Amino acid sequence: MLNKIEKISSGATKCGLDFKKLLDGQDDIKEISEFLGITHDQTILFACLVELSLQKTVTLEHLARHFKCSVIKIIILFNEIEELVRKKFIKKCYNERLKQGKLFGKGCNKLLIVDKIFGNLINNRKFAFNNTCHASHKNSAPGQVFAFYGLTTSLNLFQMPMQFNKPAISLADQVARLKSRGLKIADETEAELCLANISYYRLRAYTYPFQDNTDTNHAFVISISFDDIIELYKFDRRLSQLIFAALEKIEIALRTQIIHHWAMAYGSHWQLEPALYRDPMKFANQINSLQTEINRSHETFIEHYKNTYTTPSEPPAWMSLEVSSFGLLSQIFSNLKKGNEKLAIANHFGLNDLSILENWMLCFSNIRNICAHHGRLWNRRLTAHIKFPNNPQNTFIAIRQIYPYKLYAALCCVQYMLNTIIPANGFKTELIDLMKTCPLAQEKEMGFPANWLDENFWK
Prior knowledge:
Elements: H1 2-14, H2 26-36, H3 40-55, H4 60-67, H5 71-86, H6 89-99, H7 109-124, H8 135-140, H9 150-153, H10 171-180, H11 188-197, H12 200-207, H13 226-266, H14 280-295, H15 300-308, H16 317-320, H17 326-335, H18 340-348, H19 354-372, H20 407-421, H21 427-435
Helix pairs in contact: 1-3, 2-3, 4-5, 10-11, 13-18, 13-19, 13-20, 13-21, 14-17, 17-19
């Protein structure tokens, strides 16, 4: 660990980071090192991070660039530092110092900042990376990858306390702001009407790729109009509606197959049998979630069962799993043990590999939720990556050199599933027609290859 810290701190020094703005000399570094019970090199590294946090919001990319090392090395380093925290080594030294009354001098504000950051770290914060983020974070920054956004959201370690003070602004001011940033607006009254029904913040997801987001002014970097942005928004909405309708058919078919096969083999309440599941802890959590969804359901058939039958207290699978979310259904299916029932379902949908079906269900449920909550879809980087079957039973795409986290990959799988459910489905035709209207040459942002229509799969 020390070697890695030395390399990173050395790289940071070569980068010209001014540690002296934070730590005024070696004596202060020594004091902090002794106070926290960590090494001189570790202290320098943390000082670098604090210095960076004073300048900008820190991401792993920032750290890697400033420290002249790879993002992977940064992750490894933090994982090792986390181990020190987990073993309470730092906390022990810190608390002993507090008991002894050995605090930093009150006249040194910069040392108090470091004190506060470390105090939060070891007493209140969980030092861990989170490579997922809330949907609103993704929507607010489309087209740019924040693979480790959790560094500045869940940790709050390197981000100094900052009060949010942005006021709400009128529709007229919103239009004026967009115009001042370079967006062409032919009819300001019409633009205000649009913003009265589609919020400025929601449209931000569609203007983001065309702006300089490293500048606080967010100037538009290409010539583009408000009408162009609205057309992109409308296209994304039509795309979402098309996919949502297709996923509805797939979800219902999967739900039907799962309920039928296990009910025929194990009876009406098979979903409650622990022996059918691979992971007992997951089973317990999933059944608890299922119970929650049953309890909040107002479906007539659920109410009828509760008012009519006393044993078993829970409704049968064909009722219970009808009110479960697609996401929970996906989790339950994934946790079921491999057997004839699972293989039969995969075979029904033209797949020979169970892991592919499990993966597709997870991906489909995520996309379905984006559509259901009216989220941006067109250029989204999907959190669950599509896996492609090596030996599908039916025709599939031949060109596999595509991004598994882009929408096109998922659309190929949607079409494949629909071909087995409704061979004469119109999804292919509707998608092709819709893509002809794609504005601003955004096909690539969805992962569509230039020659995708040459595939026999789409003919």
